[in-house]
Amino acid sequence: MRKSRLMSLIIAVSIVLLHSTAAYANLAEEQKKLEQVQQEQQRRESQLKEVQQQKNNLIKELERLNNQLNEAENQLGQVERDIEATRKELERVTKELEEAQKELEKRDDLYKQRLRAMYKNSGYGYLEVLLNAENFSDFVSRFYLVRKVAAYDISILEELKEYRDLVQAKEDEVKEKEVRMLSLRNDLRNKRDEIKTVTASRNNALAKVRNEEKELDKMLAELERTSKQITQTILSLAQKGEFIGGKFVWPAPGYNYITSDYGWRVHPIYKTRKYHAGIDIRVPWGKKIVAAGAGKVIYANTYGGYGKTVIIDHGGGITTLYAHNSSLNVKVGTVVTAGTTIALAGSTGVSTGPHLHFEVRKNGEVVNPRPWLGI
Q1: What confidence tens digit (pLDDT) does each residue in 43-62 have?
Q2: What is the residue range of 154's domain?
Q3: CATH classification at residue 99
Q4: Stretch (H or E) spanning 170
């Protein structure tokens, strides 16, 4: 009878040990899966940062190209207006030159007509008029009159020639200006077309980068879901027996200021309303973080946005999580007591500065850590 009881006890203990060994074997397997998922997350996050940098660079370049295009369009518009004004000016000056030429020809014809009339009526030209003077006084009078008439005719002709030459010079200047304007317009059109070509190329590149960004976001979201599922599995494999954690101690010795409490809040980085699964305690970089209670480390590695993280199993389905550390002092399987240094404070993962993010979970679900810490 005694042997039978002893055998039953041995069998029972063996079953418990086998179950425990199997549980921890499964736990190790899940932890390995989680590490692989997180490595993939880090790789994809690195790719996403590169893609986002490319996107930002392309957006900046497109803004610069858009400014250049607007400037080229404005300059082209001004040149088009200047060409139109120059052509109108050229039309006016050309018309003025034609009128000046006509007036010069008209005056020249009058001058020639006067000479012909003088010769026809008297049979003499200017010289004959002078030579037919009756006396010296008559010669002087004739000479004075002839000089006056000739000087007047010549001055009119010279004045008209000067005016015509001036208008001609103005026309040449306006034509030269039009040629320069047309050349500038062609240059601006080429520049505008070149900017449009580069802009179209950059827009295509931006569209591809944005699609790549969306795909990476989807991948990361899927990896995050997988990571959470594996973490939940790890937590579910925690010891279901008796709670061995004892009375919890403060996990950040000497630093008691809570910067963000448990519950709903506006995320300090994403600026969206999110549920805060724990409490944030302000701790300077490198200061020690301790286990809140006795238990066994079931996770000690980088965990997504949590950065370098430690999870301790306290039995009875209770686990604690310590995130954003700069370095870890324990590994999976380490048995700890309340107050054991498990990490040094930092700001790894998604964090605005050095602090400890502390969580308490019961059967994998987050609970308010305040009662557990006696606050």
Answers
A1: 888 888 899 999 999 999 99
A2: 64-213
A3: 1.10.287
A4: helix 136-236
